[in-house]
Amino acid sequence: MKKIEKITINSIKKFKNRNRKITALTAYDYSTAKILDEAAIDIILVGDSLAMVALGHETTHPVTLEDMLYHTKAVSRGVQRALIIADMPFLSYQAGLNEALNNAGRFIKEAGAHAVKLEGGYEHIIEVTKRCTESGIPVLGHLGFTPQFLLTIGGYNVQGKNLEVTEKILEQAHRLEEAGTFGLVLEMVPEESAKTITENINIPTIGIGAGRFCSGQILVTDDITGKYGDFTPKFARKYADVASVVREAVTSYKNDVLIGDFPSDVEVFKLDEDEKKRLAMLKPEK
Ligand code: KIV
């Protein structure tokens, strides 16, 4: 059997240095993760977007550490090749260094993740990043639009629309790089700003709504397959309409059941002839 070459954080760094684009998508369950892995996607992110996409919340805020661990475990059972990164949920890494380190460690020890992702570039996030990487937990940073800051940002707004904000993001990117992050998600940043940031740091950038010049791209799988329809961002390309396919399939099933066309003769289990005769002689007690 051919040996599977696993993607590591070193592979990700090498891809950037060789100008080979990094591919990344989200997964929250075993079967989706397995499909992504078979398609040789480099990074599978158990994003906290699962709060909205899989659990039906309006924002990413309500998802808990236990939810994220549960889904990361399911994803890791489906993956042989990809680098699995788990999003640390809102307030699981902001309240103190020890708590952050212990929570991050659970993704590695219990859930099979290879790295964690932390949103933001403020001082306390930089400290947590340093503590995690120095303890052996690789960290992917996340700057630009950071959904966990939705309430302080005030809406789903593009970040880095002027020089001052781009400089601030670049400064945070430098500090995160110094603290040990192996890569950086850049979300909803104009492509010129994302290009400047990408060219001025040594670690790879993985863009989502950040244009063509990042070292790689990430999207939410349910957006590109058309499974999640509540909201489709401008930057997500829809490659399939899975919702329609599933809707059609379940409607056909429902109609077949209603008209007695399901199950058919080949979809049932049968008794052998002797048992059939014995059953025919059964006289149920009144
Ligand atoms: O939670 C998420 O899905 C993300 C994105 C970068 C895809 O953070």
From the structure above, extract its key features.
286 residues, alpha/beta, TIM Barrel, 2 domains, eight-stranded parallel beta barrel, 8 strands, elongated, binds 3-methyl-2-oxobutanoic acid
Any chance you could write out the topology, listing elements then pairs?
Blueprint: H1 9-17, E1 22-26, H2 30-38, E2 43-46, H3 50-53, H4 65-77, E3 83-87, H5 97-109, E4 115-119, H6 123-134, E5 139-144, H7 150-153, H8 163-179, E6 183-187, H9 191-199, E7 205-208, E8 216-219, H10 221-224, H11 242-258, H12 273-280
Parallel strand pairs: 1-2, 1-8, 2-3, 3-4, 4-5, 5-6, 6-7, 7-8
Short recap of the structure:
The protein is of the alpha/beta class.
Tell me, rounded to a whole number, the average pLDDT.
96
- Shape descriptor reads elongated
Q: How many helix segments? A: 12
- Rg from C-alpha positions? 24 Å
Residue ranges: pLDDT <50 for 5 or more in a row?
Answer: none
Q: What's the CATH H-level superfamily name of the largest domain? A: Phosphoenolpyruvate-binding domains
Listing every helix as H and every strand as E from the N terminus to the C terminus, the arrangement reads HEHEHHEHEHEHHEHEEHHH
Q: Specify the biggest β-sheet.
A: 8 strands, parallel, barrel
Strand order of the largest sheet: 1-2-3-4-5-6-7-8
Give the fraction of residues assigned to helices: 40-55%
Q: Helix/strand-derived class? A: alpha/beta
CATH topology of the largest domain: TIM Barrel
**Based on DSSP secondary structure assignment, what is the total number of beta strands?**
8
CATH architectural designation of the largest domain: Alpha-Beta Barrel
- Give the bound compounds: 3-methyl-2-oxobutanoic acid
Count of domain modules: 2
- Identify the CATH class of the largest domain: Alpha Beta
- Beta strand %: 5-15%
Report how far the terminal alpha carbons are from each other. 62 Å
